[in-house]
Design brief:
heterodimer; A: about 400 residues; mainly beta; 16-stranded antiparallel β-barrel; 6 helices; about 10% helix; globular; B: about 400 residues; Immunoglobulin-like; 2 domains; 6-stranded mixed β-sheet
Chain lengths: ~400, ~400
């Protein structure tokens, strides 16, 4: 007769149809938490002033990782965050749910995760504060949810050469909004394919990198026939991304760097006006964002960070001359370990067709608190980018 | 015929019989020799014996299938054995090939105080790429050891220790218990996860600090080094956050050892101690780790003859000896009970490999004159494909 534990095990096997589960080897458990709340005041040239208490982008990530029988490691990550107040994603959005298998030089990732619509991160209060410049916009999205541009169902294979050269090929299922009735084409079928090549200095070698931190190139193809979109203009929407991060002053106390990313959306020739979000994402455009950042690090930790970012985007094929400008300035002060207070000011200006959609300009003032945690339990093996593994021989 | 004579007679008779091949083959004995600290040969400079020690980051295979990064003197864990005569003039040229700070402390030796190797008390740390020359006269007689005294909690369990034997041509122990063979056993306990986390953390910090040091910039609060206690207290009163408070720079948890080694190896790769009937052997036991060990020999009593290197006034007979951190104890085993005997920690938590029994500091006392007939297995066991004792068992 089976005891209770055995019964549960067999029940699990029956339900999942996979091999029995054993519990002798503890997984590494990783917890990532970001609490982010801000008081926003928007002042628009042609809009009423608004005040919002915003806690979007607050989220939690839980990861489980262990060594596999060979040189590989397996990982499962699940996480959620609070979407923007005006999104239709509900109270919680599960932005990360993926499995990963990796060895020293290869990574296979499958599941929902950050899509490769961007190559680098920018120093803004929230990840989507300068979305039109930081990310290739999702051409299947109505624009209601910024998360549609950042997260998708991902199948990604990465090869790392000589510790610093990252080659990725990836396919995604980008969310289509508004949602349509599920079908084999809309579920999780790939509606984008791309690749990227990056030179990237590992974070742990921060003080070994004289000038270049990162240089990257990405190429994305959105398969417009998929997701029940007719090939109205063409089969494939193509984008290129170029990115670079350079050190201006590599100093542990007064650190300066500069980062820039340019996105060229080849668009469809037929689009000569922007009258909705779909056409915004599909019109030919070229835009770039550049950030200058200063970090004062008093006791080997960031104490103050100042950043100034400026972006400009032009849509050359439109009948009306249309441009978009954004300037973001912010300062963060560390109140304690991992706990920051920040002030951010954003200025956005539109003309041409975008002025009709978003107004002429907008100022946003934000006062925020940010608390980030990254904790590991049952630590059992090293990371690929640890100094021991990078400089003293990799131990699987 | 008394028992001893009977044993000796049967021992002589059995010399014509096949001995256990597995234990006594040349290859087995040669491999076993490698499981003891290798002697470091001096170069005579006038009347001074000069030794050279260099420290590097190295990968130690504790048992097949498990490696971790260590700090190793001359690429050995433990470091090489330094053996001198009482009264010798000794010079040790220590070269730091790592990106970490180190010193060497001569544990139990009457060195001049500036040679004692305590950073910021007797000397400045030996910084990356630098050399330091230790000079002293070798005394007192006995079993001693050397170890790093910088970041001692991490650096010692990472492998920075080695035996230092001061011999006396008129050895008092040899006079009382005549012996020809002796063995050095250096015990340690390692939290491989703590070592990995802390080494990485220290390496990251040191890269940053070395950048500043190269530029001649030193900040007392940043480096957490003050001239006086008053200066430190004053800094705290003025808002300085010491590293043990809210500005941690290291893992929060203290080490919880999961590997227990003798001469850098865990069972089944621990050394065998060879003896023959009627022979006395001397074991020099050194605890270079942070855990207590209660070493028990099966089938025998032994004589404790030295404590911290010094001959005890009256040798003490026992079968279990307590070896505390920092202690050295010498014992004499009389070969008076032929067989294969285990010599192990009776705190059986230390007889484990990563939590699994058996493992750790379990080793065997092997009578070389044991006839093969005594190690044979019964026919049923032979049918399983097993040949003779001792077997390597990894899971009981």
């Amino acid at each position: 007769m089976l005891n209770t534990k055995s019964k549960l095990k067999w029940l699990f096997v029956i339900v999942t149809g996979v091999a029995p589960v054993f519990s002798q080897v503890n997984p590494e458990i990783q917890l990532g938490v970001r609490g982010l709340t801000s008081f926003n005041t928007d002042v628009g040239a042609d809009k009423a002033t608004s005040a919002v208490n915003d806690f979007s982008d607050t989220g939690l990530l839980l990861g489980f990782r262990q060594k596999l029988y060979s040189r590989f490691r397996g990982q499962f990550v699940i996480g959620f965050q609070f979407p923007d107040a005006d999104s239709d994603l509900g109270q919680l959005f599960f932005h990360q749910t993926f499995l990963k298998v990796e060895d020293k030089a290869n990574i296979l990732k499958m599941g929902r995760s950050r899509v490769r619509s961007s190559l680098i991160e920018f120093p803004t209060l929230r990840d989507d504060d300068a979305l039109s410049f930081t990310d290739v916009l999702n051409p299947f999205s109505s624009g209601e949810n910024t998360e549609d541009n950042q997260f998708g169902n991902v199948l990604e294979l990465t090869h790392i050469h000589n510790q610093r050269y990252w080659l990725r090929i990836h396919g995604e299922h980008f969310t289509r909004t508004p949602l349509v009735q599920a079908s084999s084409e809309t579920d999780f079928s790939l509606n984008a394919l791309g690749l990227s090549i990056e030179y990237r200095v590992p974070r742990t070698q921060l003080w070994n990198r004289p000038i270049v931190q990162q240089i990257g190139f990405g190429y994305n193809n959105y398969l417009m026939k998929k997701s029940q979109f007719a090939d109205e203009y063409g089969d494939v929407l193509r984008n290129f991304i170029f990115s670079a991060i350079v050190n201006l002053r590599r100093d542990p106390v007064h650190f300066w760097d500069l980062r820039s990313q340019v996105i060229s959306n080849l668009g469809f020739d037929e689009i000569s006006a922007i009258d909705d979000y779909y056409s915004l994402t599909r019109a030919r455009s070229i835009g770039g964002l550049t950030s200058l950042r200063y970090i004062y690090r008093k006791l080997e930790r960031p104490t103050v960070q100042l950043a100034l970012s400026g972006g400009y985007k032009v849509f050359p094929d439109l009948t009306n001359k249309t441009t978009q400008t954004q300037v973001v300035g912010n300062v963060f002060y560390r109140l304690g370990e991992n706990f920051d207070v920040g002030l951010q000011v954003q200025y956005l200006a539109y003309n041409g067709d975008l002025e009709n959609l978003f107004g002429e300009n907008e100022m946003r003032f934000q006062f925020g608190l940010v608390y980030s945690i990254d904790q590991l339990w049952n630590d059992q093996f090293d990371d690929r980018e640890s100094l021991l593994n990078l400089e003293h021989g990799y131990i699987p | 015929m008394d028992r001893r004579k009977f044993i000796q007679t049967t021992g002589l008779m059995s010399t014509t019989v096949l001995f256990p091949k597995v234990l006594l083959s040349n290859s087995a004995k040669s491999a076993n020799k490698d499981r003891f600290p290798k002697p470091l040969e001096p170069v005579m400079k006038g009347d001074v014996k000069e030794f050279r020690l260099a420290i590097d980051i190295y990968q130690q295979e504790v048992v097949p299938g498990f490696k971790f990064h260590t700090l190793a003197f001359n690429e050995q864990v433990p470091g090489p054995e330094i053996r001198v005569n009482k009264g010798d003039k000794v010079r040790v040229v220590f070269k730091n090939n790592t990106e970490l700070n180190h010193t060497i402390h001569w544990h139990g030796i009457y060195v001049p105080w500036r040679m004692d190797g305590v950073p910021y008390v007797t000397q400045m740390p030996v910084m990356p790429g630098k050399e330091f020359v230790y000079e002293f006269v070798a005394e007192p007689y006995g079993t001693h050891f050397y170890h790093c005294h910088w970041g001692t909690l991490l650096h010692m369990q990472s492998g920075m220790y080695g035996s230092f034997i001061v011999e006396d041509p008129d050895d008092p122990i040899k006079r009382e218990f005549p012996y020809e063979r002796e063995y050095t056993l250096v015990y340690s306990a390692h939290d491989s996860n703590f070592i990995r986390r802390e080494l990485n953390s220290m390496l990251e910090r040191m890269k940053e600090r070395m950048y500043l040091m190269k530029n001649g910039r030193f900040d007392k609060e940043r480096f957490a080094v003050f001239d006086t206690k008053d200066e430190f207290v004053s800094a705290v009163n003025n808002g300085y956050q010491p590293p043990y408070s809210t500005n941690r720079r290291a893992p929060a948890e203290l080490a919880q050892p999961n590997w227990f080694t003798v001469n850098g190896k865990s069972y089944p790769m621990t050394p065998n101690i060879y003896i023959t009937e009627g022979e006395n052997i001397r074991l020099r036991l050194i605890n270079a780790g942070g855990e207590e060990h209660f070493l028990h020999l099966h089938g025998h009593d032994f004589w404790q003859v030295c404590d911290d290197g010094l001959p005890v006034p009256q040798p003490w007979q026992m079968n279990t000896v307590r070896l505390s951190p920092g202690k050295t104890i010498d014992i004499i085993i009389e070969g008076n009970n032929r067989g294969l005997w285990t010599f192990h920690d009776h705190d059986t938590r230390r007889v484990t490999n990563n939590g699994l029994y058996p493992g750790g500091n379990l080793l065997a006392l092997v009578y070389e004159d044991l006839p093969s007939s005594e190690v044979e297995l019964d026919p049923m066991t032979q049918k399983m494909g097993l040949n003779a004792l001792p077997l390597v068992a990894l899971d009981e």
